[in-house]
DNA sequence: CGATAACGGTGACTTAGGTCACTCTGATGA
DNA sequence: TCATCAGAGTGACCTAAGTCACCGTTATCG
């Protein structure tokens, strides 16, 4: 992580599986785009013009309900691609999902016009795309499992566990209200459940942040 | 629908978008496999050896919870491919999803060893695969929307509407218990909600089947 | 510094939906 | 033809979780 990494350094460190010629093509045709924290990368109804590979930052994907409430799905981190930008890009369809940068984020933008050729010419790209689909698919299945079969306290536990491990930290700066939002619940409920977790010595609660004890 | 349709006739009628050479390759390398009603096409933990294109019958995809209860996701009909068999096939991964024939079903089995070539050589195949992913992805998003944001009566209404339109029928032979299973609810709840729908003249209830009035 | 707003805690209440227990009815089959 | 059983209806009850109202604490900013 230099002061000013180039496309080349990003690709080499984050996408080592790409074959050399593919890397060249991406370096030639891709462009870096920065997103401020809280900026939308993608929103409902938008038409995609590029596929996005995340090279820096953190992106939150969520579903928006009719009445405006959100429902967290998963994060994209450096090295991930946005499966939806791939699908929607190739199909010229609009997406029903919101993607918002929650940290300052840099995306490597690949013009959709390139997709066909990349798929056809570069096996490592094709595998990468498939793997992207597969892992996002699995992620959605896990989401479904959770909301279909689990109760709120289990979902909260799962949410925290995933969050702590995704972000590789022991103390998370987040409010109860934000968690409630992500789980489509209400602050009071989350507060009460967190309190129980604290009593079970699984977390320690502070104002604006939570410590994880497992 | 002849007495004994061949691979060729299936492909021509169900996959008209495929380019001629692709059709030839599929005819040469694919094989038809029949599944009895209630037979599993795919179950949790299984390793895939082929990609499956459905050419006859009806397949139900569902998620299995730890405690054994099911959760309906979507149907596959003739002309559809199993997105999971594609993903898992290429990645040699196991799947967390169950696929069960609910009518006598015929699948056109494409050996996974062919996938790379097909993707590379035949644009119409590549588009077909992407479209398969995209539509299943959308389907999962809809499922998430429903369980995350909707109440049971809305979900039931949605379920019936989809079922009637998917199966192109006005009277559905299904028990309340089966519906409850699909929605991961309980028979009594479904019975009560159905009764309300009947009072609103949206359905007529009979023993073992339901008439739809919209 | 004082006002204000965000965050979090808590009790009281409501409600959707799950569970239990029992009944009735139509179908099946010995 | 009678016994059995699956499907369905229904009342009573329970519980998780959402909602409301209110309060205390901490951080921030004019």
**Which oligomerization state do the chains in this entry correspond to?**
homodimer
Q: Quote the distance from N terminus to C terminus of chain A.
A: 30 Å
Number of helices of chain A: 8
One letter per element, helices H and strands E, the order of chain A comes to: HHEEEEEHEEHHHEHHEE
Give the spatial strand order of the biggest sheet of chain A: 2-6-4-5
Task: Give the CATH level 1 class of the largest domain in chain A.
Answer: Mainly Beta
Beta strand count of chain A: 10
Rg of chain A, rounded, reads: 19 Å
Binned, the helix content of chain A reads 40-55%
The H-level CATH homologous superfamily of the largest domain in chain A, spelled out, is Jelly Rolls
Strand residue percentage of chain A: 15-25%
Largest sheet of chain A: 4 strands, antiparallel
Q: What is the fold-level CATH name, i.e. the topology of the largest domain in chain A?
A: Jelly Rolls
Kindly report the greatest chain-chain contact and the residue count on each side: A-B, 38 and 38 residues
Q: Tell me the domain tally of chain A.
A: 2
Low-confidence stretches of chain A: none
């Amino acid at each position: 992580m230099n002061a000013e990494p180039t496309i080349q350094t990003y690709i080499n460190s984050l996408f080592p599986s790409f074959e050399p010629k593919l890397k060249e093509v991406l370096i030639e045709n891709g462009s870096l785009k920065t997103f401020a924290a809280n900026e939308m990368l993608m929103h409902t109804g938008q038409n995609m013009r590029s596929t996005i590979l995340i090279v820096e930052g953190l992106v939150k994907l969520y579903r928006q309900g009719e009445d405006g409430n959100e429902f967290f799905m998963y994060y994209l981190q450096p090295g991930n691609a946005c499966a939806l930008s791939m699908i929607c890009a190739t199909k010229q369809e609009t997406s029903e999902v919101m993607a918002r940068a929650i940290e300052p984020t840099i995306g490597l933008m690949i013009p959709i016009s390139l997709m066909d050729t990349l798929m056809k010419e570069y096996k490592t790209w094709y595998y990468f795309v498939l793997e992207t689909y597969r892992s996002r698919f699995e992620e959605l299945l896990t989401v479904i499992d959770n909301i279909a079969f689990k109760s709120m306290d289990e979902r909260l536990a799962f949410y925290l566990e995933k969050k702590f491990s995704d972000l590789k930290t022991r103390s998370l700066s987040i409010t109860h209200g934000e968690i409630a939002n992500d789980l489509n619940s209400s602050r009071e409920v989350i507060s009460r459940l967190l309190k129980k977790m604290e009593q079970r010595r699984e977390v320690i609660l502070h104002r604006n942040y939570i410590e994880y004890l497992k």
